[in-house]
Design goal:
globular; 2 helices; four-stranded antiparallel β-sheet; mainly beta
């Protein structure tokens, strides 16, 4: 019997960690997390602190198709991220985004800005099969030594959430 329990445990694999709830810092008035379909073409901006050397830039407001979701299927064309608005009168024009990915010792980093006037969106879009990395991902926003927020996402195999993985028409 013990052999059967051990075999079932090994087949099931390691338990995934639940992502921590999003944590806004003292300057943040509103913080939203979610997942969205991102198959449309996007502009790019240089970001030397990232693996690709650039980040996607959106020219319009992005609505989360799955708001408040922190478990993300690893599927091409899906994106996940954080929207933040600062408290009235606050601004962070020279802030820094950091994304910590499973298996990487250092985060991907780029410059960004935050204000009290409109949401600032930081996101990761799965563009290539090599980016479909399961595990715990962490987004952090910093204004100098002040953490604006932290948010975690658990990326799981696409088969674990087939309805979301297939909703955008992407194939992984």
């Amino acid at each position: 019997m013990r052999g059967l329990v051990l075999a079932l445990t090994l087949i099931a694999g390691p338990a995934l960690a639940d992502p921590a709830p999003p944590a806004p810092g003292p300057m943040v008035a509103r913080l939203e997390v979610g997942v969205f379909c991102a198959l449309q073409a996007m502009d790019q901006m240089p970001a030397p602190g990232t693996i690709s050397g650039w980040i996607h830039v959106v020219d319009r407001d992005i609505a989360f198709h799955w708001p408040d979701r922190q478990v993300v299927p690893a599927a091409l064309g899906l994106a996940f991220g954080v929207k933040a608005v600062l408290k009235p009168g606050a601004s962070a024009p020279f802030a820094e985004m950091r994304i910590y990915k499973p298996g990487f010792a250092t985060p991907e980093v780029w410059e960004t800005a935050f204000s009290d006037l409109a949401p600032s969106l930081a996101f990761f879009r799965f563009d290539t099969p090599g980016e479909l990395i399961p595990g715990l991902w962490r987004f952090e926003a910093w204004d100098g030594d002040i953490q604006l927020y932290t948010a975690e996402f658990e990326v799981v195999p696409a088969a674990a959430l087939p309805d979301i993985a297939k909703a955008c028409g992407a194939v992984s």
